[in-house]
Amino acid sequence: MARMVYIGGKPSVERRALASGRIILKRETLDAIRKGDIKKGDVLQAAQLAGIQAAKRCPDIVPLCHPVPLTSVDVSLEHEDDGIRASCDVRADYRTGVEMEALCGVAGALLCVWDMVKYIEKDATGNYPSAAITDIRVLSKEKGEPAPGKRAGGKMAASRKSKMR
Amino acid sequence: MARMVYIGGKPSVERRALASGRIILKRETLDAIRKGDIKKGDVLQAAQLAGIQAAKRCPDIVPLCHPVPLTSVDVSLEHEDDGIRASCDVRADYRTGVEMEALCGVAGALLCVWDMVKYIEKDATGNYPSAAITDIRVLSKEKGEPAPGKRAGGKMAASRKSKMR
Amino acid sequence: MARMVYIGGKPSVERRALASGRIILKRETLDAIRKGDIKKGDVLQAAQLAGIQAAKRCPDIVPLCHPVPLTSVDVSLEHEDDGIRASCDVRADYRTGVEMEALCGVAGALLCVWDMVKYIEKDATGNYPSAAITDIRVLSKEKGEPAPGKRAGGKMAASRKSKMR
Amino acid sequence: MARMVYIGGKPSVERRALASGRIILKRETLDAIRKGDIKKGDVLQAAQLAGIQAAKRCPDIVPLCHPVPLTSVDVSLEHEDDGIRASCDVRADYRTGVEMEALCGVAGALLCVWDMVKYIEKDATGNYPSAAITDIRVLSKEKGEPAPGKRAGGKMAASRKSKMR
Amino acid sequence: MARMVYIGGKPSVERRALASGRIILKRETLDAIRKGDIKKGDVLQAAQLAGIQAAKRCPDIVPLCHPVPLTSVDVSLEHEDDGIRASCDVRADYRTGVEMEALCGVAGALLCVWDMVKYIEKDATGNYPSAAITDIRVLSKEKGEPAPGKRAGGKMAASRKSKMR
Amino acid sequence: MARMVYIGGKPSVERRALASGRIILKRETLDAIRKGDIKKGDVLQAAQLAGIQAAKRCPDIVPLCHPVPLTSVDVSLEHEDDGIRASCDVRADYRTGVEMEALCGVAGALLCVWDMVKYIEKDATGNYPSAAITDIRVLSKEKGEPAPGKRAGGKMAASRKSKMR
Fold first, then answer.
1. Which of B32, C32, E20, E36 is geometrically suited to a Cys-Cys bond with C37, CB 3.0 to 4.6 A?
2. Cβ contact, residue pair B46, D49, below 8 Å
3. Which of the other chains make 3 or more beta carbon contacts under 8 angstroms with chain E?
4. Which of D63, D108, D116 is closest, CB to CB, to C49?
């Protein structure tokens, strides 16, 4: 049976997670995004906001996630040859990791891109021969050590070679 | 500049969209799911509910989506060799297509799977060497014709060879 | 496996549901409510608003409920000998009944009452020897007939002796 | 006038609340649930998820409740002779008790059960002669003592003979 | 006592409302917005998205508002001599007007502007000597006539000299 | 590009913000509010609840705001000669100020007032010749000092002559 597992015994430490993912789009769509020619508005700006909101709404979207007081959410979008990459960097000083928040941020950003370019990606039958959201991964996670006296701003021990900028 | 485009001029017709996507997982994780050995509970059941809720919350997650009175949401999950596939079939009798709702449903279901198996997928450094959400696509869309007198239950003209069950 | 069942084939008709329920409280608490002496504010007014909001949030609270465009929500609260009764009367012109919305409204109103009188109901150990929410029922449902030409305002055929005011 | 009262002066301590409640159902319905024969899906699994989500959404449902960073939510459902019992066990390390969260969890779970068995419980007129949600109570509450140096994982002083498993 | 009033008797017609409002800001802040020098990002783009989301969330923010299936939301922001003006144009084909949605959209957009320029507007004590949100008004409303046979796209009778673009 | 800026390095201290704003209404409307003659219910009570809920929903309404564990929200409404003034006093023991929460509370309260008196304020064409929301300002902010050992209840250093009651 499902449960939101107990995290009260874990200490609050600096947590950070970076996730990214891609949406594959037609060249024509990518060109229109670059030129700012999309009917619904500036795609990358809207996707960024959508990603930040989705990261904050993680405990609403993912039923067994704890509410986490996020201290930072940074979503970036960049053009690639065959699509757009979204990355989401989330931080918190809390008892549980924030990779689900970062993944939600990536998914929210990419869904927003899709929505805004629907009318170019659709074929004559209303279907999407090329569009796909893919490669949503957690790129890196970091975790600080519990500070003895003061809780905030503890030095962070990278749990793996960080890919964060 | 971003806008939620005008759809008031479009007639209400039967709409349907089927989307699917996959999460790639370790064999060990897939076995644990199959055996019902996951600490947080029954993964496929929880993911299904998460998907349905995410489809309903589409206008919240995707900023430029219209609120749509969905008449049906069906999420299914099935084991594949190297992961789990989530499919989401959404219907509405409305002025705009429901593919974004179906895509949100798939993303929500797969994010829920990830959350529940985190502890098996993580390596010693807390990172995820194999887990990935991938191949989120719209498989098919259908659209009815505006009924002359009565609005509901119009016969649907498949806009493409349907893959729906 | 869970699904939000298809209602697209059902015609839109006038729907109405009345639900009610009770919270059992100590005499001392009931007196304080009547005198307007509750620290957090006017209990019945707050509970009424809470009930209306909960009825609107039904598809969020109840995972398999459809979003329904409610045309009216009326919550009333009245003192009884040993507690407070909340009633919620909901209407919609739609394809599915609104009893879940009415039940959510009742539950929301009664939970709000509990929250506001916690400090009087608690005993010395912080527990609640008498408080209980009970008797949440659907009192009556009505359903109109599909109008042949025009959809709104169809005459309603009472499906049972109505208890509505 | 209503207010969300000041809790900033209260220390963060381990808090726990257990609530439960019942939905009374027909024997036929209970049998169908047990056999997994319910059209909308597995009732107890869905109700569990609904309960967890409702506990997390407590500050949304109950207007004067504070947002609380819950560290655990556990909802369980069990068959009784004449219905289903839902229990919700909530924990937090915070400045205010979590009984409202536990009560929301119970209410959410029971409302979800009702929704899924509507079609069996309804009589020919669409009404519910037997279904009722009842006996929603707080079974026990516990509260730890403020830790002098470290905040998390403080030993808990049971404020009453605990009924928790 | 509060109620969400019955609108079921009113016919669905084309509705439109335009609202606007202003935030007064320092010249220094306006220059930074114009130059794209604001630390949190592009202010007008973010405010636009915030406004659209707030318009959609109107029944959540305004307790007695009905859920309305909006067919369009258009938020625009423009520089004025001493601040930024936000306008929100909302449409629906429904039983009740959409001015509250338009007002929510304006308020949401202006609140987002404030949030993003906080650090420039604050004085040394952390207070805001000049910033103010003001002049939030409904500029115009329009209402179509119920179409005899077909519901959508009815000709609109302007209820006042329209100021819409 | 937009971001939810990093606040993890800032210490948790007592924070407080007081905001207020006004809605200008017709004398006739103000009289009806005072007499309790408004069709939708008690305006000031409903507005107060709406304000409290809006303050809590600030990170939802304002996209780049952090989720903040508020310890108190107090909304008050008072009659003025030509309208109603709403004030919102918010507190938290956290890493970032709470003025956006206070501003959201004011905006939510005033929007609720408008909604409830629409039918008196409207002229024959459905427009609003006099109603306006105006003068939404932050009246004062206070910020405590980080406590060395214990975090809660730190002495507060007023950052400006406080106007709080």
1. C32
2. yes
3. A, B, C, F
4. D63
Chains that touch F (3 or more CB pairs under 8 A): A, C, D, E
Q: Does D35 touch chain C (CB under 8 A)?
A: no
| C/F interface, count of CB pairs below 8 Å | 16
User: Which secondary structure element, helix H or strand E, spans residue B20, and what is its range?
Assistant: strand B13-24
- D64-89 residue pLDDT tens: 999 999 999 999 999 999 999 999 99
CATH number at residue B86: 3.30.70.640
Of B147-161, D17-31, F22-36, give the lowest mean pLDDT range: B147-161
Catalytic residues of D, by residue number, are 115
* pLDDT > 50? residue D99: yes
Whether the per-residue pLDDT at D151 is higher than 60: the answer is no
Q: Is the pLDDT of residue D1 over 80?
A: no
Q: What residues of D are in contact with residue C132 (Cβ under 8 Å)? A: 135-137
- Is the CB of residue B33 less than 8 Å from the CB of residue B112? no
SS (H, E, C) chain F: CCEECCCCCCCCEEEEEEEEEEEECCHHHHHHHHHCCCCCCCHHHHHHHHHHHHHHCHHHHCCCCCCCCEEEEEEEEEEECCEEEEEEEEEEEECCCCHHHHHHHHHHHHHHHHHHHHHHHCCCCCCCCCCEEEEEEEEEEEEECCCCCCCCCCCEEECCCCCCC
Question: Is E123 tagged catalytic?
Answer: no
pLDDT of residue B146: 79
Question: CA of D89 to nearest chain C CA: how many angstroms apart?
Answer: 14
* Residue C161 belongs to a domain: no
Q: Measure the CA–CA gap between D33 and B73, rounded to whole angstroms.
A: 21
Cβ neighbours of residue A67 closer than 8 Å, sequence gap 6 or more: A59, D56, D67, D69, D70, F67
Q: Mean of the per-residue pLDDT values for chain E?
A: 90
* pLDDT tens per residue across span C122-150: 999 999 999 999 999 999 999 998 766 54
Q: What number of CA atoms fall less than 13 Å from residue E105's CA on the CB side?
A: 31
Residue F151 within any structural domain of the chain:
no
Domain containing B86 equals: 13-144
Q: Which of D56, D143, D150 to mutate to test the interface with A (most CBs of A within 10 A)?
A: D56
ipTM of the complex: 0.91
E9–F contact, CB cutoff 8 A: no
pLDDT digits over E13-67, tens only? 999 999 999 999 999 999 999 999 999 999 999 999 999 999 999 999 999 999 9
HEC string for C102-127? HHHHHHHHHHHHHHHHHHHHCCCCCC
Answer whether B62 touches E (CB < 8 Å).
no
Q: By the CB < 8 Å criterion, does C59 face chain B?
A: yes
Sign of CA dihedral D117, D122, D128, D129: negative
Instruction: Please tell me whether residue B148 adopts helix, strand or coil conformation.
Output: coil
Do E52 and B64 count as a contact with CB atoms less than 8 A apart? yes
A158 lies in some domain = no
Q: Do C100 and D118 touch (CB under 8 A)?
A: yes
Q: Would you please indicate which residues of A are annotated as catalytic (active-site) residues? A: 115
Domain count, chain D: 1
What is the reported pTM? 0.93
Which of F2, F8, F60 faces A93 most closely, judged by CB atoms?
F8
Interface of F with E in 77-96 (CB under 8 A): none
Q: Which residue of A has its CA nearest to E112?
A: A49
State yes or no: pLDDT of B150 exceeds 50.
no
Mean pLDDT, residues D131-152 taken together: 83
> Which residues in chain D touch residue C39, judged by CB atoms under 8 angstroms apart?
5
C151: in domain = no
Q: What distance in Å separates the CA atoms of residue B27 and residue B149, rounded to the nearest whole number? A: 55
Cβ contacts from D onto F, under 8 A: 64
pLDDT digits (tens, 9 = 90+) for F93-127: 999 999 999 999 999 999 999 999 999 999 999 99
